[in-house]
Amino acid sequence: MRIVVALGGNALLQRGQPMTAAAQLANVRIAATALADLARDHQIIVAHGNGPQVGLLALQAAAYDPEKLWPLDVLGAETDGMIGYLIEQELMNALPAGSRCATLLSRVEIDAKDPAFEKPSKPIGPVYTASEARRATTDHGWTMVTEATGGQRRVVPSPLPLRILGIEAINALLNADHCVICAGGGGIPVLRNADGAMEGVEAVIDKDRTAALLATELKADALLLLTDVEAVFENFGQANQHLIGMTTPKALAKLDLAPGSMGPKVSAAVAFVQGGGAFAGIGQLSDARAILEQRAGTNILSDAAKPLKVWDNEGGALD
Questions:
Q1: Which residues, at least 6 apart from 120, have a Cβ–Cβ distance to it below 8 Å?
Q2: Which of 102, 152, 191, 275 has the most crowded Cβ, counting Cβ within 10 A?
Q3: Is the pLDDT assigned to residue 316 strictly greater than 70?
């Protein structure tokens, strides 16, 4: 099968871990093992998040000159190179000799009138204490939100991806039997200005939405959205939280999910399935194969599809 696999930024740099090169490399090696397991049997395209990484680079740039912050599109491109290099190298180490892999920077066109610019919602960077968040707001004018854990994070606009520029190059590499790493961080956000030229945008496109668009344009058989949470939960974090196993877009439409975390993943998965995709899965990186085989995570099929197996919300087979 042709599978688009989207790795969450927090799957590559887990919550609470130090934001060091060593910590990220250790996590990338774990991710590469799961990816290589899929790549031995299937053609995979790897997209990845960059929330923690782009936030760290923003802090480093601010330390150099607090009055002249680097634009997010440039910082995003930097993380694409860094993360893509690490994934490519460790994936090649995990795959059999003779395997082929390539990393591409991907520009993604967005709409300048996207309503996301009026309401920033995409968390990036580290978790701050209340006093640190107040200082960041004062110093940089950042918008902050409080997470379920009580800490605060910076949020930025997250416009919808309209078009992946360079999709032809991705297709050419796939046809040449390469594993392709692309659309890092949701892609580098660009728009066409009044003169018709492309320019960067101060935003971060949600990587799951871009991965869904990528999967649709490449006519992928499956979309896997892998993170550090085992599945989608109804009432997540509450005493009555409930794991959602096999489900459909119609059932998911009834849920109230956090817009800055699981909400975009579900929206992306639903968009892919409703756009003609056969299957989308959401869950933990370590469960990648089990999710693909519909034995773990949240499995999303079209309302009319017949699943390989039907699982209840506790992981047990219903038939």
A1: 143, 155, 156, 157, 158
A2: 152
A3: no
